[in-house]
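User: Structure please.
Assistant: Input sequence and predicted structure:
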Amino acid sequence: MMDLNKLYSSQRTGNENPTNTNDPRSEYQRDFDRIIFSSAFRRLQNKTQVFPLPGSVFVHNRLTHSLEVASVGRSLGTLIGKKIVENYNNQLSDISKNFYEHELKNVIAAACLCHDIGNPAFGHSGEDAISSFFVENENELKKYFLDNEKEWQDLKNFEGNANSIRVLTHNQKGKMKGGLRLTYSTLSAIAKYPCESTGIDKSSIQRKKFGFFQSEKEIFTKIAKETGMRKTNDEPIVYSRHPFVWIVEAADDICYNIIDLEDAHRIGIIDHEICKNILYELVECLNTDISEQDTIKTNLKEIEDENDKISYLRSKAINALIMRSVEYYIHNLTNILGGTLNESIFNLIKNDCKKLNEITEFSLKNIYNHRKVVEIENAGYNVMHELLSLFIFPILKDKQERTQREKKALELVPKSFIDDNSNASNYQKVISIIDFISGMTDNYATELYKRIKGIKIGMNL
């Protein structure tokens, strides 16, 4: 059983002995600000959420999605923190009471802000492209990784969640030690799958994917130990999820399940009346207060703009889901601390409100598998695959064996992403190239693809 008094730590990566400062912000507020001002976070503004490169109609990208998840996460952290203090008052130290009442919301907001920071361009098709590249080229590439199966599994199962830990903690060449130097609390709160790639187990919600690359195994182990995570297996390394992860996950689930509907409505993929009825029925299912339902009906009649009607219902649905999430989290906290919960908070709510299942099924059929969405996802997949082919094969060859074409290709990669010295392992060389490619925005990746394929030729300084 994890201890509520040992789940948080202000220790930072790359800064083992932090000095006292006169900064009026708390350590966890500083995390939020560091993420906001980071270049990795800014790049999310041009990375796909669901609708890639939508043109003139503005819909959510990874950055706006992350900001909204952080907003929902802050609300969840505030309410859950107060409930923990109320329900576990006798078990908490004074320092812990202060943390849960005043700081948990800041940890959750910061974690929500960076939960997708490791996702490559083109959404999940970008992740799939990276994994599939190594699977499809296994006969040619695996010989470079025969001495370490775990490193090969990292590449074959590339995962945005694991990459987030790398982006936030990696000592990139020429830059400050410790990455963004976030607190261990914030980093533990994004570790959705706290195991290494050889520990994947599809039957467990905590191990459906993996949470850290071999390159970050040492720092992840430190984070887990410092924040009270329970180790359940030594080989492969597996931990129980940190209790804060469930809150971040709930915030993410709430946002994308509801806001993807709003985006689909805004760009005309789904009919207004259908969208309005789906959201209204959901609010009705989640909120049994008759007077509140009457108020919502009255307000809807007064709103004439169709987009505004959907926005109003979206806000009501999110608020209702926040309140339900707090209720289910506190009710299941013993199982969460014991590492025995095997279902997300959002899915627990689904079990009681079947309308959420209808939304999931409707979105899968009418939004995520819409022809235009699938077309652009395929295009993004091909772009990423081509870029990987251009850089991965040359970086694994000895310098003397590279063709002139391969040498020219590697000159396109910034020096900070080339780990080409004699001491670097093949894994280090490849994962540095993946750092470069996964960090690209949709537009940058597409533009580079056009130029290397000869689709677009000319100077563009």
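The first strand starts at residue 231 and ends at 233.
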